[in-house]
Amino acid sequence: MAADTSSEQRFSVSHFNEDDFKTGGLRSYSSYRDLGVALATNGAATAHVIRMTAPFSEAFSERHRHDIQLQLVYVLKGWFKTDFEGEGIHTMKEGSCWVQPPNIKHTVIGWSDDCELLEIILPAEHETIVEE
């Protein structure tokens, strides 16, 4: 049975506001809208909407992995293409959802100009390791 963590969480609501999209996150080619999950869960999880802000370039393709417990991504708009270690190349389209196991190596290899993703990660603070 899972531990009861409800006492460690608080109620949170995030309404859409275009001004909430901020740059300066993990990816230089994206802006992020923090949904308040990290604050509400005391860092147990994070959730944000990622909006691609630059056309795809091969310069953005960098093999990497995330030291996480869970990473779930859902395509809100457009499409997103990634090469996953042991799984091959997948093009995710609007409505596609995937879970990336902890430390799976992957390389982003394309996206549409209108691409927006919802990403949920446990825990909120985690390391991204670039593969050589």
UniProtKB/TrEMBL annotation:
<protein>
    <submittedName>
        <fullName>Cupin domain-containing protein</fullName>
    </submittedName>
</protein>
<dbReference type="InterPro" id="IPR013096">
    <property type="entry name" value="Cupin_2"/>
</dbReference>
<feature type="domain" description="Cupin type-2">
    <location>
        <begin position="60"/>
        <end position="119"/>
    </location>
</feature>
<dbReference type="Pfam" id="PF07883">
    <property type="entry name" value="Cupin_2"/>
</dbReference>
<dbReference type="InterPro" id="IPR011051">
    <property type="entry name" value="RmlC_Cupin_sf"/>
</dbReference>
<dbReference type="InterPro" id="IPR014710">
    <property type="entry name" value="RmlC-like_jellyroll"/>
</dbReference>
